[in-house]
Design goal:
four-stranded antiparallel sheet, mainly beta
Amino acid sequence: MASTQKAGVLHITGVMQGKGKIFAPTSQKAVDTAGDCPYFTEVLFGDAGRVLVTKVSADQGVFVCIDEGGGAWAWSSKAFGPVGNAPTRVFKEGVVDCSAGCGFIVTVHTDGSVLCTTSAGNQPVPTPDPIQACDSANNKILLLSTVGDLYQVSTNDKAMVPTRLPLADGMKVQAFSCGSIHSAACTTSGEVFTWGFNQSGCLGNGNRKSCGIDSPCKVDIASPDGSVPFIRSVGCTKGQAGVAQVKGTGQEGPRTHLVDSNGGLYIAGTTHKGLGADHMNKTFMPEKDHLNFYKVGGKARDVKVSPPVPTGAAEDIAKSPAGAARRMGMQDLDEFGKGGCTNYLSGVRIVSSAPAHIHSAALSEDGRLFTWGCGSNGRTGLAAFMRGPGGSKRTMKCYVSTPTQVESIEAMRVLGYATGRWWTLAIIDPATMPARRGSTMQNK
């Protein structure tokens, strides 16, 4: 959605270099010999110095952000058009929203026009009405008009003709998310619609049947107490390599995340590698996916493991009970497992959540960033990834089933964030950052 937030300093964690590619311009001191940065480090804008940004988006090696003056900056591991592997200001002003896809960026401008920047240059996207917000992933673009209509565009279509999401008369979209192989939207009255590839159950309609934008699924959602939540935010998996990798339960499939008006988080889709946030201990290939939306903090669905292996913040329970509870988003450690529930995030109000290929992130109302899933390459930014022998990286079993506040930035306020295939990006309030003392903020 379009950004209205305060500007902050852009940071990134995950893969920085590999296979001859540079994915993010950061200090070389922050990058290890494998080309990874396992902790959040500041994105460098070259001769421009520190640039404060209000919005950031990423997909598979393409990044775009908006600065506080309405300019758009982009970079990519594979150069296209005016975009190289260092942040380049592609528009000086007038940008109100932006998004990254596979080999392109999309920008929405103050006059409601939309441009898709590719190797062929800036291509206008024709729309029936002025546009206020955009999102994109893979080869798709979603555009929200100023009158609340949602349109989908494929970059495979040279004419880029938009298709309108068919909703009943008077029904308008207020939040939406474009995933790599599926998408979702919620209306001003709280209804949720999903469409796309559904082998992992990510549409949340109780089965694995896919549907197109011409016949989206209206999803019924219920809280554990039976009440119907009012959904305000949606997020769909970005950075998904493709449907060939998604073959059923226990696979690296996509998810849909929903956030209700009370700050509750719901997940539909794969639970592989802890992505379902429904286990109190490490899980790799659970027996079931979330075919219906599961409320995070609900009943624990642990498989029988002996001995049980805690993950993320739960690893620190013996050393720091209060700290572990806080990092799991709880008021008190007594909540952990109480009533057979995980009770994750029960003490915070989540405002949005963004799943990526094999990790996820969520932001709380008070600016705390939580991540979980596979920590390989440092994409979650969590200390758990660096708890291998002698403080080395964990190679296997770096899966975190426990939504955990990122330790290295827990004293700072996160204003905005994004996830991509191998990264998490965070926009941090400069007033809460420590004085510059190096290139990276390591977990202690």
